[in-house]
Write a structure and sequence with these properties.
heterodimer, A: mainly alpha, MetI-like fold, globular, B: mainly alpha, two-stranded antiparallel sheet, about 75% helix, transmembrane (chain B)
Amino acid sequence: MNRDRDTPRSGGRLMDMVPHLILMLGVLIFAFPIYVTVIGSTWDAATIGRGNLPLTPGGEMLNNYASAWSESQGNRVMHTPVRIMMWNSLVMALVIALGKIAISIISAYAVAFFRFPLRMVFFWMIFITLMLPVEVRIIPTYEVVANLGLIDSYAGLTIPLIASATATLLFRQFFLTIPDELVEAAKIDGAGALRFFLDVVLPLSRTNIAALFVILFIYGWNQYLWPLLITNSAEMETVVIGITKMIGNGEAATDWNLIMATTVLAMLPPVAVVVLMQRWFVKGLVDSEK
Amino acid sequence: MQRRVIFDNRALPYLLLAPQVAVTLIFFIWPAAQALWQSVHLQDAFGLRSQFVGLENFQAVLSDPNYLETVKTTIVFSASVTVLSLASALGLAVMADSKIRAASAYKTLLIWPYALAPAVAAVLWMFIFNPDIGILGRALNNLGYAWDYRLNDGQALTMVILAASWKQVSYNFIFFLAGLQAIPRSVLEAASIDGAGAVRRFWTITFPLLSPTTFFLLVVNIVYAFFETFGTIHALTHGGPGKATETLIFRVYQDGVVNHDLGGSSAQSVILMVIVIALTAIQFRFVERKVHYS
């Protein structure tokens, strides 16, 4: 007997199938576009352009991926080689993730473990960034970055996106749960603030750091509006921007095979990160935003 | 909340705060102040001279029928994305929370779209619904339905709504599932013993207990639809055809970057800031109240 079942036994068989059917439908709706894209990346441009894309893999897979990866020109479109764009995206995602974690963990430590003049002023100054997403101050931020001479640089691409209150708040909240007795004991043992940070706080924060890393990596990798503005040279293009530039107006006469191969490559790193680090990612998401 | 035991050090806390404060001042406070300043000034085309014009930029923006049209598009777009992605995520989460086999496999299969960039989601949809080469786009045309989202306003708006919602479902799913799993089983079992059916249990117990999660997601989804969907729209329709899929943020970009109208674009930015601040304030008041209850 399965007493946990929600549905009564009579007619239960059919009712048991309902969740499976609905979930499978959900999975199908998410998976279908990806499937078609992967298939598209294995055919030649002409087959796709005629509009008769089969639903089974073609034989051009290696060709397509190789030329998207290393060449800057297909039959019809010019583009930055994907390896350069992927590298830019990777640098951007890593610098944003590690930079945000680094500066917010130390500022949260300062706010949580010290009492000093202007403490709350600084806290609110950081906090207010929650209300200013880059999109709403896009033009003036662009001007600031241009004035600093950071257009087309990794610094311009990443630093303006680094400060954000979410990570600081999350760390602060976590630090407040560290028992006072632990701090007391460390102080009696003669440990200073830096020693306590390195030997106790940092190791205790490992899970939070891992969780934030996943979320911030994806945030950085998927940026669109900011890199669109701040990079002009093909050498600095990120892969998400690169794809939409390759598409242009979405005409049939585009190298869709290369675009599809690029799309698959562009989504592999973030999807891999989410799937492999699911546990941390979900924890970080639910903890940090609620 | 304050801790009782703290470290004494004069300079160290300032040093620890310095990087974040520096970045915040340079890239947040300064640009925001500049947006405020520009929104009450009029600049010539070369940005050489500017003149204080008070609220004229705001007046110009708010009395522009084009802008009001954009406001309408944004409301339709955001409301549709929010309702569609919340409702389907809730449905899926309820199903995944029921005691079925392979529940964790379903979870993995449903949460990965979170990792996709909005612009990449747009490309996937374009490839399927393109009227010339897309499998479903061609199928619609073959069935006799004239489908071309590049020409038809309503179809374009539908496309961006679907692509934007599709990407957001997984995010909402994660939160709904976490919310559902926090509901004590005993409450539901008690209701079950009292003879309440699954549907009744959902509406009288589960749904009310989920309301904090739902409210939080409501705010997050509105903010998502407002700002983060720029990539979806830019990649899929470029705001077109005409201005059919132009949302407020798309217009800030269009007026500021493409048309170089700094005053108008800044006034629009300030309007958007007010909206975000209002949304954040509402959210925090609500979250605070929730904390008091628990």
